[in-house]
Give the backbone structure.
Amino acid sequence: MKRALAATIVAALMSAGAARSEDAPPQDVKIADMAVKASLTGTPGSPEEGAKTLANRSLGNCLACHAVQALSDEQFHGNVGPPLDGVADRWSVEQLRAIVVDSKQALNDESMMPGFYTLNVGKNVRKNLVGKTILTAQQVEDVVAYLATLKE
Ligand code: HEC
């Protein structure tokens, strides 16, 4: 049941934005020790933009699976994944970046959370979306910058 929900959510998400030449291509982003050390863009993320991306149903759609108290104005918060409150106390920025890039590599290979900056998103990807990521590199940096503010 949860798995079917996750598949629907991923299918709804694939609306990739344009990559910029200075961004690290997804196939070059290496997760080591559960972390992605370097910024994907070299441009610091914006927590304000990150909060919007996180709540946007056609971008991060993170709230489909996670609750975030600070965003309680948003109507629906899922519980497929753990609440993200206090997540910056549990993980470093480098670890948060790895989780958003590809949680299957960063957390566990059965993770239902979509990889937001990886080309390994499964077999049933629509043709026009092959080779694209769910989020752009800068959107990942923005989301990570927002997550880094979630301390308890
Ligand atoms: C389809 C559901 C789903 C979506 C969508 C989703 N996640 Fe997750 N997420 C999970 C699950 C499930 C876990 C628990 C770890 C696992 O998968 O084993 C998790 C774990 C996490 C963790 C680690 C939390 C902790 O306390 O250890 C972070 C951080 C996170 N997600 C951030 C995000 C962000 C940011 C987005 C949107 C860009 C997002 N997630 C979208 C399901 C989801």
About this structure: The chain is about 30% helix and 0% strand. Residues 2-13 form the longest helix (12 residues). The mean pLDDT is 87. The radius of gyration is 14 Å.
